[in-house]
Amino acid sequence: MKILIENILALLPDEAKVCSVAIEDGVIVSVGAAPADFKAEKVISGSGKMLIPGLINAHTHSYMTVFRNCADDLTFNDWLFGRILPLEDKLTEEDCYRGSLLGIMEMLSTGTTSFNDMYIHINAQARAAEESGIRAVLSRGLTGGKDDVEGGARRLRDAETEMRAWSGRENITFMLAPHAPYTCDEDYQREVAETARRLDVPIHTHISESQAEIETIREKYGCTPPELMDKTGLLTNRTVAAHCVYLTDSDIQLFARRGTSIATNPVSNLKLANGVAPVPKMMKAGVNVAMGTDGTASNNTLNMVRELGLLTILHKGITGDPEAVTAREGFKIATENGAKALGLENVGAIAPGMKADLAILSLDAPNVNPLGDPYSALAYSFSGMETETVLVGGKILMENREFKTIDRDRVLYEIQRIIERIGLK
Ligand SMILES: [Zn+2]
Question: Which of 77, 97, 203, 260 has the most CB atoms within 10 Å of its CB?
Answer without folding.
Answer: 260
